[in-house]
Design a protein that fits this description.
Length: 277
């Protein structure tokens, strides 16, 4: 006879059999996730170390059970189990949240994933990340959706009902309140979007898309605001050179040009650009 146990929730008795419990903890999926963590974390030395010492792995394992219970109308019991997982791991995942395969929560302390959040396959989430909602309306989508392969840097705050596209990266401490296109990077507060370079224009850009970027950092990817300021500084320097050429031409023609009064010290183009780095 198949073993079973009973759970009382909202005056309704539900039988959960060992057959269903085994579905939560499929060893094939566990091995798949352990392998993905080994590939993304150089500090991981063995599968046993991951199972026993990685709170992100443990929190996701418990979430599978609490999510199943939530979908089978065991609301209180699923919330209680997720609450226990939060106490022991420091990671809060609502039982209703949908989590994909091979998701890696690294370090994990302070991670919060809300009720209507969805996380795609192969995502990486670092400590302090919040997938939060900005609406108080019950029964509606309030939290963000992460596509496949998204990387969320430490303490990134992704707030609202929108989608972060496949392969996108969210930099550490970024506050994202609007949609992020696939392959783009969001940095700053509020987050500014750095669009992905066309791989046809740059072989390095193509190579970068195939590499895992810890904490959502990509080499040679500047803040768009800094890029804009560098452009303004260089454009201003070009205008000054042009004005100087016109002034010299007028003076050669015998037309006197009154010098402008300069208040305080001036900085060269090189000095201004260094200040922006």
């Amino acid at each position: 006879m198949e073993k079973c146990f009973f759970v009382q929730d909202s005056a309704e008795t539900v039988i959960i059999t060992n057959h269903y419990l085994m579905r939560f903890f499929k060893m094939g999926r566990f091995r798949e996730e352990i392998k993905s963590i080994m590939e993304r974390d150089p500090a991981a030395r063995s599968g046993w170390e991951i199972v026993t010492c990685y709170p992100g792995f443990q929190a996701l394992a418990v979430h599978r059970l609490s999510h199943w219970l939530w979908n089978h109308k065991l609301k209180w019991f699923s919330r209680f189990i997720s609450h226990l997982a939060r106490i022991f791991t420091g990671i809060e995942i609502h039982p209703a949240a949908v989590i994909g395969r091979r998701v890696f929560i690294d370090h994990g302390c302070g991670v919060v994933i809300g009720e209507t959040a969805e996380v795609g396959d192969d995502c990486t989430i670092y400590q302090g990340v919040t997938l939060g909602g900005t609406s108080l309306t019950k029964g509606k989508k309030r939290h963000p959706t992460l596509g496949n392969g998204v990387i969320c840097g430490a303490n990134a705050q992704i707030l609202g009902s929108f989608t972060v596209g496949d392969g996108a990266k969210v930099g550490s401490n970024a506050v994202v309140v609007r949609e992020v296109p696939p392959g783009a990077t969001a940095v700053g507060n509020p987050a500014r979007i750095i669009l992905k370079e066309d791989p046809k224009d740059s072989a390095k850009a193509d190579a970068a898309t195939r590499l895992f970027n810890s904490y959502g950092i990509t080499a040679n990817e500047d803040d768009p605001l800094i890029k804009a300021l560098h452009g303004l500084i260089n454009n201003n320097a070009a205008q000054e050179r042009r004005i100087q050429q016109l002034t010299d031409a007028l003076e050669k023609a015998g037309i006197a040009v009154e010098a402008a009064d300069e208040e305080g010290g001036t900085l060269s183009t090189e000095q201004l650009n260094r200040l922006m780095e």
